[in-house]
Amino acid sequence: MEAWLRPRLRRGPSGRAASVVFADKGWRGARPLHVMTLEDRVLYRALVGLIKNALPERLRSREPVEQFRTAPLDIPDARYISKTDVTAYYEFVDHELLCAELTAQTGEELAVESLADLLASVIGRRVGLPQVHPSSDVLGDTYIDPVRRRLLRRGHATFTYSDDFRIASRSLGEARASLEACAMEVHALGLVLNERKTYTYRTAKYRESLTSFADAERRLFEEGESPDTSGGLGFLDPGYGDADGDGAAQSTLGTSPVDSSVDEDDAFTGEDDEVAEDVDPRRVQAAQRAWELWEEEDESEEAQAGQDAAITQSLLGRALSTLGAADDSRPLKSLSALLRYEPALTPQVAAYIDAYGRGGRRARTEIRSALDKVVNGKILSTWQGIWLAHAAGGVKRATQRHDYEDWLGRCVADGHDGLAATAAASLGRIGRGDVDLVAAAVDRVGPEWHRLAFWGLIGLDRARAESTADDELDRMLLAEAAEQ
Q1: In which band, very low, low, confident or very high, does the pLDDT at 39 lie, cut at 50, 70 and 90?
Q2: Cβ atoms of residues 73 and 103 within 8 Å
Q3: Distances (CA, A) of 241 to 148, 220, 234, 235, 282
Q4: Cα gap 333→27, rounded to integer Å
Q5: Bridging pattern class, strands 19-24 and 164-169
Q6: How far is CA 176 from the centre of its chain?
Q7: Where do the H-state alpha helices sit in 297-398?
Q8: Tens digit of pLDDT for each residue in 472-481?
Q9: What element of type H or E holds 30?
Q10: Beta-strand (E) ranges in 192-303?
Q11: How far are the Cα atoms of 184, 272, 383, 418 from residue 44, in angstroms, in the given order?
């Protein structure tokens, strides 16, 4: 990989505009995600890594978020604590101001200039950072840090975590002055504070607020539960029982294409080829309680805007993969409702499908039926479609062709590039699809999605993939597929 990338990057950044996919945030709108080419992703990480090494220690790594939240409480004589954040922060980071700050902090002028050119090419303008990327977190923390420093010089006890601010004050007047100063300083960076998330608490009330959501979550969760599930909320924590700390809600995305000669589920005559993993009974009880809360939830507009709706969504998001591993079919039967009313939980829904599908032939038959129905409902956003297409690729094919397979084919033919490439990869994984259609998609989709579509072609027709490989990286994918 390094031998292939080095000469390409030596010529400078490829500078291709990133593909944008809008990820659902539930009632809070959508977040734009920039999908870069492999070359640009590698260069972005390398440049920021080089610059990061010269940054002050506090900007090289973030303190734990809990430490950030509790730090204002350690300020002597603080009677009030204010909290606020920036509206759509990553979307409005000015590249020129960012580069000025990076150069001032590090002196890495050449790397900073290369980074500026790359960002402008990827984003398509000289404002904004790719979201959900560790390198963007480093740049974002550096961009906002002048605000923290200036507020400290004015005598305001200020703490930051990304674009979140906490300011400790001795009086209400001082608290108001600190927020006005914060608003003025972020405005100088082309940013605006989020008025709906700006509050000033008395110190005791702020201390209570640190656990208010968790306390309300526990009260709602334990309401009406039986004695044997008391305290079960802790079993929904992502790291519970996970030695690696990865969390049970994560799904496996890096699977290989399935050879077209694979056994077909409906033709099996023996026992299931997979055995469901053992799940802690207490965790299952907790997940089942979370599901019941979601089913009982008030769907009125007023209720959905309240804290209880946020709590049930939080609990459900942590419960879904456990329900799948426990062979609980209720989420599958409510798949359409989940995708319609909880779009932000689509990744967790995909993890549920993956976990439930490990239960064997019956489970996979039920999944196919549910997918057939939901893909014809026309309720999916592009982002949801990408997750569902990926999940569909993890279900072994049946003897009969299913509607969701035809949907994957339609996505390959005329869907958003990201959806088309994901659908192509899924068809390759199940070993069923129109080879000509997938081959055409390899050329149709943008370069940031090319490899994924090519992966699908490998699964459908290896000989054709070998004869049409564009470069060394394509041939590396072929070699990797052969090993798997």
Answers
A1: confident
A2: no
A3: 39, 24, 11, 8, 11
A4: 23
A5: unpaired
A6: 35
A7: 301-304, 307-325, 330-333, 335-341, 346-357, 361-375, 382-393
A8: 889 999 999 9
A9: strand 30-35
A10: 199-202
A11: 31, 45, 24, 21
Distance CA 305, CA 299 (A): 10
- 268: CB partners within 8 A, 6+ apart: 361
State the maximum Cα–Cα separation within the chain, in Å, rounded to a whole number. Answer: 77
Instruction: Answer whether 320's CB lies under 8 Å from 349's CB.
Output: yes
Does 235 or 274 have the greater pLDDT score? 235
Q: b/e for 227-260, b at 16 or more Cβ within 10 A?
A: eebeebbebbeeebeeeeeeebbebeeeeebbee
* pLDDT 10s digits, 389-398: 999 999 999 9
DSSP string for 330-358: HHHHTHHHHHHH-GGGHHHHHHHHHHHHT
In this model, does residue 228 exceed pLDDT 60?
no
Question: Could you report the per-residue pLDDT of 119-130, keeping only the tens digit for each?
Answer: 999 999 999 999
pLDDT for the residue numbered 402: 95
Residues 483, 11 contacting (CB under 8 angstroms): no
- Give, rounded to a whole angstrom, the gap between the first and last alpha carbons of the chain: 18
Nearest CA to 142 among 91, 102, 198? Answer: 102
Cα separation values, 322 from 27, 246, 277, 295, 357, Å: 25, 14, 10, 17, 12
Is the CB of residue 360 less than 8 Å from the CB of residue 392? no
- Name the 3-class secondary structure at 158: strand
Instruction: For residue 281, give every residue at least 6 positions away whose Cβ sits within 8 Å of its Cβ, in sequence order, or none.
Output: none
- Cα separation, 461 vs 284, in Å, equals 42
